[in-house]
Amino acid sequence: MPNETIISIKNLWKSFGKNDVLKGVNLTVNKGEDLVILGRSGSGKSVTIKCLVGLVEADKGKIAVFGTDITNLKNEELNKIRVRVGFMFQNGALYDSMSVRQNLAFTLKHHTKDLSDEEIEKKIIEALENVGLKEAIDTMPAELSGGMRKRIGLARTLIINPEIILYDEPTSGLDTITSREISELILSVQKKYKTTSIIITHDMACAKMTGNRIMILKDGVINAEGTYDELEKSEDEWVRSFFI
Amino acid sequence: MIQSYFKDICEETGNFALFGGRFFREIVKLPFQINEFFRQCYAIGYKSLPLVSITGFIMGLVLTIQSRPTMTKFGAESWLPSMVSLSLIREIAPVITALICAGKIASGIGAELGSMKVTEQIDAMEVSAINPYKYLVVTRILATTLMVPILVIYADFVGVFGGYIGFNVHGDMGLYRYFSDVFEHLEFLDLMPAVIKTFFFGFFIGLIGCYKGFNASSGTASVGIAANEAVVSASLAIFIIDMMAVQLTDLFF
């Protein structure tokens, strides 16, 4: 269905103590769209996507994912939404006590009870091939570089075939070449799996490559919205400062 | 100032009670994480054996050597095996072993879960629709509740054997006669209350370790704080439970 809205946030508010982080965020994401959220550190970008999967509880507002308002859902109901939404954490968030194979199998086994060991192994290898790290299957997370951890984190997300993937600063802390590789990987995932994505980033090269729409968060609200080219030519000096 | 301190204590107590209460709700829900439970039993029980063996042996040895002069002075040297075994089984072995477990296990759980929290591994489980409380907390609390009593019973035996070695530093008594003396004066009621209280020791060691780790704030420093607070709180809990257990035992037995 063209232009089907699968994420909708209306008047989202969130405070931590006396610090009001989000002050009425509104956004919608259509199916197949790749939205980039930009903003200065501490502007509430990560909080926004964490609210989408129930990791952070909103103070006020409505969050609808796949048409279901998740703000008052019980955990069991929320989990039905969560299996359709992948989340790539800033540092991969791989389980330290498990090998790469076990990291991927752990998530898969929890959601697919009827798969045989051979089928699980096949899916693990396929997911690792998609991120170009098949050879890392038996390594422990501590032995991986930052870029590799992010790739494995993405493979773990992909293994359950999510319809939406939320990327929390996928290129932070990486060198330019590795950042570009991660951005290309996100792009290939978007094309191959036809996912809808929200990408939180500071990296303008990543934003240009992976996003077809950009929103800029300032003082807890969406301050500007448009394509990369539109925002680059914005009359607002503050918006243009991101593109320098 | 005092008001805010009082409020913090009330909040912490309430959160701890809710966290502990959730254990009883989650434990009856399927599926049970049996593999993780056995992994934790191995890590908590089997890997603590060398430490418990050494401390248990030294407890029995030292208690016997230290008690001997006083017992000899009162002409009660022959009572030494039963006195040492009763002291060990009723009080010293459960409390010392539990304190060692608080140091080793509660701090380990606090640091492990704290570091998982800080590096977003617990969040990763949650967003993958995997219940982190059930997987991480329930299995660890069950493992400590089961393993600490087993370690204490093991420490009882090693401690009594240490007492035998300690007795023979200045004496000469056969192993068979020593253990005959020990079991002659030992009753089931000496063992039972001591073992029952160790289940509570184990439960609170696991619960406190998990609570501190699960609620670590962001930043690597909080991992150390979680581990430290887990040891201090679990050790304190052991003394409080022990005091209550002694009062109850005194009342009913």
UniProtKB/TrEMBL annotation, chain A:
Keyword annotations for this protein?
ATP-binding, Nucleotide-binding, Transport
Question: Domain named ABC transporter: which ranges?
Answer: 7-244
- Tell me which SMART domains the record gives: AAA (SM00382)
Keyword set includes Transport = yes
Q: Does the keyword Transmembrane helix apply?
A: no
UniProt GO MF annotations:
ATP binding; ATP hydrolysis activity
> From what superkingdom does this record's organism come?
Bacteria
Q: What is this protein called?
A: ATP-binding cassette domain-containing protein
Which source organism does the UniProt entry give? Flavobacterium restrictum
Automatic annotation (TrEMBL), chain B:
Sorted alphabetically, which keywords does the UniProt record give? Membrane, Transmembrane, Transmembrane helix, Transport
* Localization in the cell: Membrane
InterPro entries cross-referenced by the UniProt entry: ABC_MlaE_roteobac, Permease_MalE
Q: Which domain of life is it from?
A: Bacteria
GO terms of molecular function: phospholipid transporter activity
The main place the protein resides is membrane
User: Where do the TM regions start and end?
Assistant: 44-65, 141-167, 191-211, 223-246
The answer on whether this UniProt entry bears the keyword Magnesium reads no
Q: How does it sit in the membrane?
A: Multi-pass membrane protein
Which Pfam family, giving just one, matches this sequence? MlaE
Q: Which cellular component terms (GO) are annotated to the entry?
A: ATP-binding cassette (ABC) transporter complex
Q: Which family does it belong to?
A: Belongs to the MlaE permease family.
Q: Which protein is depicted?
A: ABC transporter permease
